[in-house]
Amino acid sequence: MKIPKQAYTAEFKELAVKRVKDGQSVSMVCKELGLSDQTVRNWVKAAAEGKLNGAGGRVVTPEEMELSRLRAENLRLKRENEILKKATAYFARDVL
Fold first, then answer.
1. What pTM did the predictor assign?
2. How far is CA 72 from each of CA 16, 18, 40, 88, rounded to the nearest angstrom?
3. Fold of 10-95
4. Which of 18, 68, 79, 94: CA 20 to 30 A from 61?
C-alpha cells in the first residue's frame, strides 16, 4: 500500500528545523511530529541553504502540531502493543 505524500506548510517545516537547531535530536523531532528522519534532515539542509518553502499559506497551529505528535505516539504505542501480544503468545506456547 502506497503512503500518500504529505504537504507541509513552511511554518511547520520551520518549527521542526528550529527544534533541531535548538539542540533536539533529529530522531526525537521525527518521533514527536510523525515524520521520517530523512524528511527532517532535508528540511534542515534546505533551511541552511535558504531554500525551505512550504506547500501553501495555511498556518500550522500549536494544537495541530500537538495533534500530529499525539498521532505519531499513538501509532508507535499500537506497534509496541502488537509486538508484546506476539511475544506473549510465543512465550505462552513454550510454557505449555
1. 0.55
2. 15, 19, 15, 24
3. Arc Repressor Mutant, subunit A (1.10.10)
4. 79
DSSP 22: T
Of 48, 29, 49, the closest CA to residue 39 belongs to: 29
What value, to the nearest 5°, has the Cα angle with vertex 91 and ends 90 and 96?
105
Residue extents of the structural domains in the chain: 10-95
Residue 80 has pLDDT above 60, yes or no: yes
CA neighbor of 51 nearest in space, from 81, 79, 14, 76 = 14
Of 42, 43, 33, 39, whose CA–CA distance to 72 is shortest?
Answer: 33
Cβ–Cβ < 8 Å for 26, 37: yes
